[in-house]
Structures are given as C-alpha cells and as structure tokens.
Amino acid sequence: MNTIEVRHLRRVYRTTIGVLRRQTKEVVAVDDISFDVRPGELFGLLGPNGAGKTTTVKMLTTLLIPTDGTARVLGYDVVKQAEAIRPRIGFIFGGERGLYWRLSGIDNLRYFASLYHVDPAVARERIPYLLELVGLADRGQEKFEGYSRGMKQRLHIARTLLHDPEVLFLDEPTIGLDPVGARELRLVIRNLQAENKTILLTTHYMFEADALCQRIAVIDHGRIVALDTPEGLKHHVQDLSVIELEVFGVPPEVLDRLRALSFVDTLSVENREQKQALLIHSPRGSEAVPDLLAALNGLRVGRVLVREPTLEDAYVRLVGGRA
Amino acid sequence: MRKLWLNLRLFLQGAILSYIALFRWLRPSAYLASKVFMPLNQILFFTFLGIYATGRDNASFYVIGNAVQMAAVSGIYGVTMSIGGDRWDGTLPYLFGTPANRMAMFLGRAFFHVLDGMLGVVLGLMWGVVLLGLDLSQTDPLALGLTVLLTTVSTSGLGLLMGCLSLITLNMMFVNNTVYFLLLVFCGANVPLAALPGWMRAVSRFLPLTRGIAAARQIIAGASLAEVAPLLAGELLIGLVYILLGYSLFRWFEFQAKRRGTLEAI
Amino acid sequence: MRSGELRKYGRVVAAAFEMSLRQMALDGFILFTVLVQPLIIALMALWMLRERGGDYAIFVVVGSGMTGLWSSLLFISGNSINWERWTGTLETLVGLPTPMPVIIFGKNLANVAQSLSSMMAGYFLAALLFGYPLRVEQPLLFLVSLAFTVVSFVSFGLIIAPVFVINPGVQGWQNAMEFPVYMLSGFLFPIALLPGWTTPLSYLLAPYWAARALHATSSGGATLAEVAFCWAMMLLFSLVYLFVSSRLFRLMIRKARADATLGMQ
Lengths: 323, 266, 265
Hints:
The structure holds 3 protein chains of 3 kinds.
Chain A: E1 4-17, E2 23-37, E3 42-46, H1 53-60, E4 68-73, E5 76-77, H2 82-85, E6 89-92, H3 105-115, H4 120-133, H5 149-160, E7 167-171, H6 179-194, E8 198-203, H7 206-212, E9 215-220, E10 223-228, H8 230-236, E11 242-247, H9 252-260, E12 266-272, E13 275-281, H10 289-296, E14 301-307, H11 311-320
Parallel strand pairs in A: 3-8, 3-9, 6-7, 7-8
Antiparallel strand pairs in A: 1-2, 1-4, 4-5, 9-10, 11-13, 11-14, 12-13
Helix pairs in contact in A: 3-4, 8-11
Chain B: H1 2-24, H2 28-54, H3 59-69, H4 71-89, H5 92-96, H6 102-132, H7 141-166, H8 172-186, H9 198-205, H10 210-220, H11 225-260
Helix pairs in contact in B: 1-4, 1-6, 2-3, 2-6, 3-6, 3-10, 4-6, 4-7, 4-8, 6-7, 7-10, 7-11, 10-11
Chain C: H1 3-24, H2 28-48, H3 57-77, H4 80-87, H5 90-94, H6 100-130, H7 139-166, H8 178-184, H9 199-203, H10 206-219, H11 224-259
Helix pairs in contact in C: 1-6, 2-3, 2-6, 3-6, 3-7, 3-10, 6-7, 7-10, 7-11, 10-11
C-alpha cells in the first residue's frame, strides 16, 4: 500500500475584490495532480513559488479541503478520516511564527508534546534528544522570540518529531537557513529517512531536491509537469551535455568520422587561435569521451571538458518555458 | 499670503488623513457601534448605578457627566492614535523631513476629531433626553454648544499630548484605556468633586473635562453663559496648555530623533 | 470516554492552562481588562454607593470582580482562537490529534482564573480603604457558587471563541456587549432598576444567575433553595453551552479548512 496516494487533486481559491462592487476571482492553485509516495521514500515536490506545493501539502495534512479529487495518507481519506491521520503525521510550514514567542524552546516542546499525547516520561527523554538533534541543545531555555530565523526553523523540526510520526511533510524546510545550517538540516532529513520514515519534501532549490530525493515531481502552475528520479529528469535534458575537446588541427575526414558516430548528436568546431575546440552533443555525456578519443586515433588532444546537465537545466526546460 | 495658503492646505490634509486613518481600521458598522451604542452603554450603566446610589432625582447628574465625558473618546482614542499612527506607518521620517509648518501639521491631526467628539457628546445628550428623561428646556443652546466645543478642544489637547508620548512608549493602548477610565473618576462625571479627597480634587483641577462637565450641568439647570464663563475660560486655558505641551514634546521629539539618528528605529 | 483518553485530555487542559498563563500574564491589554478596569470601576462604585450607606463594600467587590470576569471572557477568551491564528499556531493545532475544544477549554480556564484575581484585588483594595477585613456572609455557599460561575463562564467562552472565528464581523460588537451585560446581569445594581421588559433577557444570561448567587451568598441572607436554584440554572446553561459549542467548533474547523483561513492573519 502506498503511504500517500493522490488522485486528481484540485484546489480552487475564490477571492473577492472590491468593497462596493464585489467581483469574485477564481484562482486554481492545484489543477488535477496525481502521484503516489511509497513507504520509506523521500519524495520531493519541486517548483517555483506559487506553483501549488504548499497548497498540496496542506491538503495532505488535513488542513485544507480539496475542491475536487481524493487523497489518502496511510490508507485514510484526508477529508473524511482526518482524525485517523493526524496522530501519525508531522508537518512543518516553518517561518517566524507558528510557536509561542514568550515561551522557551523547551517549554514550547513540552506543550506540544502533551498536545500530541506523548507520554510525559517519553517526552522527558525525547525533548533533550530532539534539541540535540537539531542543534539547539544549549539554547533550549531561551524564549522563542529571541531565536534567529534559522533557530526557529530548527525548533519547528524538533516540534514535528515529538510524537515520532511515520510520515513527515516538510514544506521548504531549509528556507531562510544559512548554508551550513541548511546542510546540517539536510543531513537530519536523510537520517530520518534512514529510520524508515516516509517524507514528502517541498522545495524550490534544485540542488536540494537532487541531493535528497529519491523521486521528484516537478510542479508548476498547479500541474505536475514531470515525475521521475533525479537521474531520469536529468536524462530529459541529456542533450544539453556538452563535451569539449581541445585539438590542434583536425582534418575534415576525421570530423566526418566523428559526426558519423551513433552517439554523436551534433558536432561543431570553434577556432581558437592555434587550437580548435570540438563541441560535441551526446546523450551519453561523459561516457562518450573514451570512444571519442579512440575515434580521434592518436591525434593530439589537449583539454577535455564535459559539461553535464544539471537538474536546474531540466527544471528550467520543464518549467521555464511556461511563464 | 501664500504661506498662509500652504499652511491651511497642510492643516486640511492632516485633518483628512487622520479621519481616513480613523476609518481604515473601523468599518462602518463598527464605527456605528462605537459612535452610537458605546456612549449609550456607558451613560446607561453609570446612570443606573447612580440612581441606585442616590435616587432617581439625581439621574441628570450622571447623564450629563457621562455624556460630556464622551468628548474623551475621540480625544484620547482618536487624536492619540492619529499621531501614534504615524509611528506605526513609518511615516515619521518623511514628515520630519519636510519643511512643512509643524504646528499646522500637528493641529490638523486633531481637527476632525474635535468635530467627531462634539458629535459624540451631542448624541450622548440626545440619548439622555430620549431614554433617561433629561430635561433640556432650561438650556441656553449657545452656551451648551460653546461648552461642548471647548471641552472637546481641551480633551483633544490631552490627546495630542498623549499622542506624542505614544511616540516614545510601546504599550500605548494600556495607557489610553487607563487614562480614559481615570478621567471618569477624576473629572466629576460620576462622583461629585466635593466627595473626593483633597489631593484628588487638586488633580481634577488640572484635567480637561472637569470644568466642562460642571459648566454643562449648570447650563442645563438654567445658568446663563455669563455665569459659566469663568469655567469655560478655565477649560479653554487647560486645553491650550496641553496643546502647547504636546507641541513642545513633538518638536523635542523630532530634534532628539534627528540628533540621535533614531527616526526609523522608534 | 476511556480513562486513558480522559487522562490525556486532562494533561492537555493542564498544559494549555499553564501555557496561557505564561504567555499572556504580562500582556498590557490583559492586565488592563483583568485588573485595572475592574479596580477603577470598584473605586467609582465604592464612592458612588457611599451615599446609600449600609454594608455595600462586599457588594462592590463581588460586583466589580464580575465585571472583570465578563470583560475578560468577552475580550480575551473570545479571542482565544483568533489569537492562535495571529500567532501562526492555529494550523498546527488543527492538525493535532487532540480536539481543539479541549485546548480552548484549558485556555479559557486560565483566563477565568486570572480574572478571579481581579476579584481578589478588589477585595484588598476595599479592605484597605475601609480599614477592616470585609466579610463574606455565607462562605461555603459562596465558594460553591463561585465554582458554578467558573464552569458556566468557561463553557460560554467555548461558544464565543468559535463564533468570533466563523463570523469576524461579530467581533466589532464586542464593545457593545460589555456594559449591557454588566447592567442586565445586575453586577453592580439590582435589575429591578431596569425597565420590566428587559427581565426575560436577564434570565437568559448565565452571568445574571452567577451574580445573583454570588451577591446573595456574600452580602448574606440567601436561602439554600434560592441559591440552589441559581446553581441549577448555571448548570443548565453550561450543559447547553457545551453542547452547542461542540457543534460550533466542528462547523468552524470545517469552514476554515474549506476557505483556507487557518493560516491567515
């Protein structure tokens, strides 16, 4: 059974503008999306701001009722069986608010532990452990209002783990964190996945999705435009990988021979003073280099540069053209 | 001449702005509730309490006291917030950066609240007539009108001073509410001044509303304008003192902020 | 409800109670509503009623304490859910396995406890002014009446809070609901002073029965039958409030989830 099942989920917002003459405007935030998340998987929702990621997560965490379609978490319907889901999931939306500012970090955690029905004896042990985990062990006594942005985010993570949920929904968890803090947090997330938790992560950082997720759904304007492993997504844009071979005078027959190779899409030549640069597009990427060198058969080759497509390239191609 | 025109324009702009600001956070229904029903509530409550205390014959004592005290609503909540509002909007630096006449700016903030306050008092008195048998037959309307105007001006003066204070402190709503209620105690709206201990009577003398309420009671009982003139003069004087104090504080504040570079950091 | 669940809910109530006291104790608005306003009203009433003579001091203390209770209920308990929204914690609370009414119950209990302190403060103020400790005529009955008062007020708070969320416009009338209840409930003067047609309205207010019981047992001279009747009325109202509030909470959460207003400011 899939941990998360989404079928044709749709969410429309109705806003009214104006005071005297009211006009209703409909915004489709999520437009017919479907996907599954397998148990123990770290699944990513990648998309620009306003794509519908947060709206999707809110529907899955029973905070928002879909306009259409269904979603099931752990087999329970998110609308009709919300009470069964809530004890077993954790979610963070993060941000400056969301915790009680006049309470200390520890007191916030104690409060939420009782709200999550965590046994007091268990909470007593788990809270210090969680503070240690998110790197707030020595700041737990300070009031939340005094925390930096990054610290607040980390306390949110601690809060969401209090009741040891099996499914985690993390909405842009590293936003606002400095690079070191973000990296530490990603390590925490990876460790959580190693504990067999199912995690749905949303982000607009490509490298983050690439580094953490086993599968990624690219979402834009409320629709899923691609769903694949990071490698699979990069494959979409394999044609963007460029191999640059520096050579010193190559006769035209050799160029023709190279062009004729099956794995060579295009070959172009750039003249650079006394050298030439052969720019080759190949779906095999860097793997094509040995065979190319063999085809050059003894000719002197200087620098070899391979520019691999990144997830960003894939993302831009999938999302960028639709603005 | 041109300078006069400029200052007048500034005055009016400030006035309109402060009134719009009033409406921004008060929707029409809430404005209605506060202008019409809140005075009614307060007048009814204290009048009934007063009747319980001193009998039905003395009802008008409490009605007049609380009706005139309504001037404090716009004076304290309206005027104070319209000055304090600049701080929250972050517009103070821009204001202080202009060569505009400070006095015109300052007074413009209070202008519409004076009108608003007068409306409040009149509505309060009307409720008194309609519901509580207040008898206005002996009243000199000019005298009463003047009393209401001067009282509203002097409470607005207090509001201007408090508004400037609010630029410095943070917990302004607490202070506003407390001052409003303390005025009820000190200005003789519900407790005759004679019944207050000496030191409290002394404080009352330096507050707005005290003389205005006393004058209103006398006028409604039939006194002429001439008879209450000393009280009215005193009320006006108090008002002017507060306005001047407030203005000085306003200028001092601007000077300090510019000197210490704390204009935005307030 | 199984005993295990009851214990868990009890812990939640205790936690919400403690959190509320800590988070809100030093708030200026709360201090004013709970302490300053009732004390100033007490002061004025003490002066005004001096003319009446007699032993009116305890009457004023209890009455002004009740004004504090009611204002606190209206402005603070009434906002308890909206406050979570402004703090940004409402979404988290809705996503919890604990039903929200339990949390709000704990918060309201804290508010009522806080505002009872205003009654205590009034007591000390009056004692100070008069130079001798004031006497509660029937202390045991008074305490029982106080317990019923707490229950009925907390239950009523469970109605106002979701109503203020479902219909934010109603909140604009908060001010308009403050003094009328002071009057209709007979906090500081008997309702006999009011026109006869308002009496049925008074009977519909739980605060009226609370004030009646508390005044009767503190100023003395109440028969057990009379006071017990007040208790019965408060109990009845509490049950009605609790029943209606559970419906209201469900409606409110459903509406918030459909309209996406959980996270709004």
